[in-house]
Amino acid sequence: MKPYCKMKILVTGGNGFIGHTLVRQLLNDGNQVKVIDIKPVKFTHPKLEFVKKSVLDDIRWEMRDCDMVYHLAAELGVINSDKKPLNTLAVNIDGAERSSNKGRQPEKPRKHLWCF
Ligand SMILES: NC(=O)c1ccc[n+]([C@@H]2O[C@H](COP(=O)([O-])OP(=O)(O)OC[C@H]3O[C@@H](n4cnc5c(N)ncnc54)[C@H](O)[C@@H]3O)[C@@H](O)[C@H]2O)c1
Q1: Which atom of ligand 1 is nearest to the CA of 92?
Q2: What predicted TM-score, i.e. pTM, was given to this entire model?
Q3: Is the pLDDT of residue 110 over 80?
């Protein structure tokens, strides 16, 4: 049996380059997947829930029932950091903090994986 199947997994940035591949694989493995992204996921699946939201918003509600969080939401590239440096910093630093357990009391132990 695969180690991570039949779990409820949150993927921030699940519409991105890495995120959309990961989400498809997690769904294929039988997990229930919730995606938080500012851009919509381009496919549907009975076990996929999409929440259009920024990781800079309060995402505690979305995190509350998840066994695992993959944090992939990010602002990438020189153009973004040159044109919108503060937003880039906020998404990449504050977003990582908000998607962590810090300052929260999760209902159950949760695994976190961040990608920078
Ligand atoms: N692509 C690579 O080869 C690679 C290699 C090593 C590490 N990484 C890291 O993996 C992570 C994801 O990379 P990627 O290539 O999938 O990037 P990507 O730009 O394709 O995806 C990032 C996703 O985050 C979303 N996003 C941006 N701001 C957001 C916000 N405020 N709230 C919610 N979602 C938001 C975007 O809409 C996008 O879907 C990054 O941290 C990156 O540095 C990527």
Answers
A1: 41
A2: 0.91
A3: no
